[in-house]
Design a protein that fits this description.
The structure holds two protein chains of two kinds. By secondary structure, chain A is an all-alpha fold. In chain A, 62% of the residues lie in helices and 0% in strands. In chain A, helix 1 crosses helix 2 and helix 1 crosses helix 4. Chain A is globular, with a radius of gyration of 12 Å. The N and C termini of chain A lie close together (12 Å). In chain A, 28% of the residues are buried. Chain B has a seven-stranded mixed beta sheet, with helices on both faces. A five-stranded parallel beta sheet of chain B has the order 4-3-5-6-7, with helices on both faces. A four-stranded parallel beta sheet of chain B has the order 10-9-8-11, with helices on both faces. In chain B, helix 14 runs parallel beside helix 16. The longest helix of chain B has 20 residues. The chains are: A mainly alpha, B alpha/beta. At the A-B interface, helix 2 and helix 3 of A face helix 2, helix 3 and helix 12 of B.
């Protein structure tokens, strides 16, 4: 799976979980850019992404992601390792 | 995700039939977690609940809920909110910051008391409790549960003393931290030992306190497993001790308790016979060929019957509904040595070749209960769908294919939550059997009065007392149809009323040649100067049309005359379910005055009735 494909699927998960069709993510996207993305929905997104990609993030990862790009990089590594 | 295709169904359903609140339990599904498959009920997932929570509606019933917890409960609150919306309940939720349980309880000036919630959840998390346990020395550890329970008892009685709220207390998951390994079961110094003790003591508290209910988180966690119900990462980053996956099940159980307390619970289970009560088809296989006990997969059906019999023993009514010849269908109940269920367990037995919908309508008429208090169990998807579509409100679980899964599946659905039990529950089956006999007997009379006269009815009239208070409280909780004002009272409330000189109370039993109905009607009169206000008039629908209303009215008139009152004042508060008594006061000769009904006492004559007062 390419980085672009991962970003696309993550984008779809955001749209579904946050019920906002207009969300367009890029690698630099941060929580401030998206109204519905707060500390509560962050966990909801993380769990949905974990289930979708059948993998798990670590506690440190979910606390330290600076932007969507870092999240996708972590996912890419985990998918490669599987 | 627990269900993927559920969302669409639910939306359609809720628009078409807004009264079906139980539609969420009709599917079973396999979910994959780690390397395990779980067959679990199809609840909405946490994200679906979040979405539902946004669709709150002002027409939904409002319930005020406070959550007092020592850990983060924001996810739990969202899930409860969403679950409420899916059940047409609009929760208003009061949350505290973490670690504020005691502070909120003990500072009477704080928001909790002003908020005056209907329900209070108290949730001490095992993570925080274990942390506190670890701070103790040997002696403190051995006494840990006792100290903890003292703390809980004080909290509960403080809340009870100034709030009417019902308390839902989460018990503690009994998880071995393996500091001692299995030896934890052999020493009171282990957390496991103390956690089990805490839970047992909480049960004792709840047993003796009518407003305290336990949310059995321990059983939920052992059913779903720790990896499913706890996500260490969510705990570390958010301080929530429940995983998002377990939240729907926790919310459902909270809702089950709340619904039962509010008087909505299952009273009857209707069961099909072939391939559910026993394996095989009685008409084809014969009594020697059906699978029950040792034959074939009979053990699965034995387990099912054992579970159903326990329900019957605790007061759930069992009716049989089967496409069969009646004599053939009854044979195993009478003759098969390995049958668990016997004819005396069955209140209504219907076996014929009519369609199931008509037969269920007949059973409902005999029992005179609402469809939303009935569960129908059938192994055939076709019959299930037919019933589900034709009878709104009835609960029809989609049973798993393998009969071996029946009991575990049904027990997870937690269909039979109740908020109280009493001795009458156990006699209920006998009562409905008597009722079936009465229906047969009545057919032999052309005129109603002649029939009633032959029944030789008598009623015992008494003020409420400590023996009858639990049953009366239960009547106020459960009666929906013959209930003029539908004011629900707890045992405590009824005890207070019966002890107060501002009220006069009457309870009525009814007995006839077929048997004793027990306590079936209660009246609470409030003294208001020269008027007597009828605060509560309730009657069990089992004794409708027997003249007990008139008999009770005569009792009120006798009392009011002798005590010198000039007026009886009644009020009818309409609900969805009490249309039956809309004209009750008019029929008895009351005259409407604004929104109240008035009846002048002193000129009143007694009404005709065939019931004699027993002494």
């Amino acid at each position: 799976m390419t980085a672009a494909e991962i970003l696309k699927e993550v984008n779809r998960i955001f749209i579904d979980q946050l019920e906002n069709e207009n969300i367009v993510l890029n690698r630099a996207s941060i929580a401030d850019d998206i109204e519905e993305w707060d500390s509560l929905t962050h966990i909801q997104l993380i769990v949905a992404i974990e289930k979708h990609f059948k993998t798990r993030f670590t506690s440190a990862e979910i606390q330290n992601f600076k932007n969507v790009g870092e999240m996708c990089d972590a996912l890419e590594k985990k998918i490669l390792l599987k | 995700m627990i269900t993927l295709n559920k969302k669409k169904d639910r939306n359609n359903e809720s628009r078409l039939r807004p009264t079906i609140a139980t539609s969420y339990i009709i599917l079973s599904t396999l979910i994959y977690f780690g390397k395990y498959f779980y067959r679990i009920m199809a609840l909405s997932s946490y994200s679906e609940l979040v979405k539902s929570s946004k669709r709150d509606h002002p027409a939904y019933k409002k319930i005020k809920l406070a959550i007092l917890a020592d850990s983060s409960t924001q996810f739990l609150a969202k899930a409860i909110k969403g679950f409420g919306v899916e059940n047409e309940i609009s929760f208003e939720i009061f949350e505290t910051d973490h670690n504020q349980v005691e502070m909120q309880v003990y500072d009477g000036s704080l928001d909790l008391y002003k908020y005056n919630p209907d329900f209070i959840i108290i949730f001490y998390s095992s993570k925080k409790v274990i942390k506190e346990f670890y701070t103790h020395d040997k002696k403190g550890k051995a006494n840990f549960a006792d100290e903890f329970v003292v703390k809980c008892t004080t909290i509960i009685s403080t809340l009870n003393s100034s709030l009417q709220s019902k308390i839902i207390f989460f018990n503690i998951p009994e998880l071995n931290d393996n500091v001692f390994g299995n030896f934890a079961n052999k020493t009171d110094l282990s957390f496991l030992y103390q956690a089990k003790k805490i839970n047992l003591e909480l049960m004792k508290l709840a047993h003796n306190n009518a407003s305290l209910f336990i949310l059995d988180l321990n059983s939920l966690q052992s059913f779903y497993g720790l990896p499913f119900s706890f996500d260490p990462k969510i705990y570390v980053t958010t301080d929530s001790v429940l995983s998002l996956d377990i939240l729907p099940a926790v919310s459902k159980n909270i809702m089950d308790i709340i619904k039962a307390i509010n008087g909505s619970f299952k009273k009857c289970v209707i069961v099909d016979l072939d391939n559910i009560t026993w394996g095989g088809v009685i008409g084809d296989d014969g009594i020697e060929g059906i699978q029950i006990g040792e034959l074939g997969i009979g053990k699965a059906f034995t387990e099912f019957q054992l579970w159903i019999r326990e329900l019957v023993r605790r007061g759930v009514i069992l009716a049989i509904c089967s496409k069969n010849d009646e004599a053939i269908a009854k044979e195993p109940f009478l003759k098969h040595p390995e049958m668990i269920l016997r004819m005396e367990d069955v209140s209504v037995f219907v076996a014929n070749w009519e369609n199931k919908v008509d037969n269920i309508l007949y059973i409902q008429q005999v029992l005179n209960i609402d469809f939303d208090s009935i569960v129908f169990l059938d192994d055939t998807p076709f019959e299930r769908n037919q019933v589900k579509n034709a009878i709104p409100g009835i609960t029809v679980p989609d049973l798993p294919e393998d009969p071996a899964d029946y009991v575990q599946f049904l027990s997870e659905l937690n269909l039979f939550e109740t908020s109280s039990i009493n001795e009458d529950d156990e006699k209920r089956t006998r009562k409905y059997q008597e009722e079936s006999q009465r229906i047969e007997f009545k057919k032999t009379f052309a005129n109603e009065d002649g029939y009633l006269e032959t029944l030789n009815m008598s009623s015992e009239v008494k003020p409420f007392n400590k023996f009858t208070i639990p049953r009366i409280a239960q009547l106020t909780q459960r009666s929906n149809q013959f209930n003029l004002r539908t004011i629900r009272y707890t045992e405590d409330d009824v005890a207070k009323i019966s002890g107060s000189d501002k009220y006069v109370t009457f309870s009525f039993t009814l007995k006839d040649i077929f048997g004793d109905h027990g306590l079936v009607s209660s009246i609470i009169l409030k003294k208001e100067k020269e008027n007597l206000f009828i605060d509560t008039w309730i009657m069990s629908c089992r004794v409708l049309k027997r003249g007990l209303e008139e008999f009770a009215m005569n009792t009120i008139i006798d009392y009011a005359k002798s005590a010198g009152y000039s007026n009886l004042v009644g009020e009818y508060i309409p609900t969805k379910k009490n249309m039956l008594v809309k004209d009750h006061y008019q029929k008895l000769g009351f005259v409407i005055n604004g929104s109240y009904w008035h009846f002048p006492i002193q000129a009143a004559f007694p009404f005709h009735t065939n019931i004699k007062k027993s002494i």
